[in-house]
Amino acid sequence: MKTMSRKLNLVELRSLIRRNQFTQSTSGFAPGHTQVNLVILPKAYAYDFLLFCQRNPKSCPLIEVTDIGSPVPKLTTPHADLRFDLPKYRIYKKGILAEEVHDIEAYWQEDLVSFLIGCSFTFEQALIDNGLSIRHIEEDRNVPMYITNIPCEPAGAFQGNLVVSMRPFLAADAIRAVEVTSRFPSVHGSPVHIGNPEQIGIHNLSQPDFGDTVTLKDGEIPVFWACGVTPQSVAMSSKPDLMITHAPGHMLITDVKDSHYSIL
Amino acid sequence: MKTMSRKLNLVELRSLIRRNQFTQSTSGFAPGHTQVNLVILPKAYAYDFLLFCQRNPKSCPLIEVTDIGSPVPKLTTPHADLRFDLPKYRIYKKGILAEEVHDIEAYWQEDLVSFLIGCSFTFEQALIDNGLSIRHIEEDRNVPMYITNIPCEPAGAFQGNLVVSMRPFLAADAIRAVEVTSRFPSVHGSPVHIGNPEQIGIHNLSQPDFGDTVTLKDGEIPVFWACGVTPQSVAMSSKPDLMITHAPGHMLITDVKDSHYSIL
Q1: C-alpha to C-alpha distance for A104 and A85, rounded to whole angstroms
Q2: Most buried residue among A134, B119, B220, B258 by CB atoms closer than 10 A?
Q3: Is the Cβ of A51 closer than 8 Å to some Cβ of chain B?
Q4: Which CATH superfamily is domain B10-119+239-257 in?
């Protein structure tokens, strides 16, 4: 459940996050500003992961990759410090979730490379602008995310299954949602699946692997988008020595406007 | 000037290219099939170049990156062999164009990584389908390409200026060309410039840096798109020990259909 008002202004929000005083999901906050997923890896893994992203652009659309050792995403958010500016992080050691923390100062190393990956929160504003209601925002929850049975295209040390986010819609709205999100290829784009969750290996919609469960109303169809939490499923399968990520739903808020990523 | 008929079927065309019997520009051949630019680098440069492509998606939209040492683009054209299947290659040694060759068997090394980069030939078919005429195809020439004064976003060892391809259109057609090519973000997408060439550092349209000159008729506006020959300008500036590329206009013909890369 949210404890902060979504009306917080951006400066205030960022200041609270940096001071570990805002530690919840950023969904619905700072509307219009692009939020991104985070993956941090030692340089030894960076080439394989960069290639993994190139081969899996629907789940891992790269917004920016930092220079080695720099915690500053200089191209999209030059004042940010990736060690502090997300509300919550996850530390994966050899594929095991070891810890959740509110900053990663203690984990920082000079050989780390940070990957900023597009997030579906970007197209949620476009969906709302088109009159569609986003259930998890309505219900003040984090978006539900599921590990599917769809294998990603492997690259070097990295392999694993696709993670999807789910939003329920009536049929006509689901169709409109396909149209609207197709215009945002660099933030996951169009859905990867629509309808029967079993077909992609999801057996129980009320038990998401990440995030919260939301209500599926009578007549609604679940619509599934590739999700930037996929690298966390990949970490579990591929077991790199260290992978630091955002906690699902707890994103970096960049300086770039969502509309920047829209085609047409 | 073309010497082969554009009506050659794909099997025949590929067979001729593999046997070094087709050595001209592939522009206008195999309509509907995606053609790609090629960059081959030793593994030591691969991370920096992959990052360069990520930071410069308009000029270097990656279609595929091969596994280290493999000349086979297994995801898009699994029967192809990148050592033989382009009509002409360029060998850059420390930034100097050392040689043009029709196959690169003699240059192959076990540590080479190949980058397939989207090509504007893909959207040319869409332009033609929209009733626009492509001057360099009309005039049976290679597309004119120019090195601009626009710096690319650097990455590690790689920096240099953007290369653009140019097509002249009347104003109404230029507007339509922007609309049509916007739908193809993964093959350079919308133009980077329209009108006055001087504004992007091009002083003489009749002297392209790559390809052929084409006629600019009264009332026509030159329209400029980011070009996959940019890595060759980058090679000249960055001077890697070895970079093998396609010769401008002499592309790999993949199995993927152009329409695959269209948004909406």
Answers
A1: 10
A2: B119
A3: yes
A4: PSTPO5379-like (3.40.1640.10)
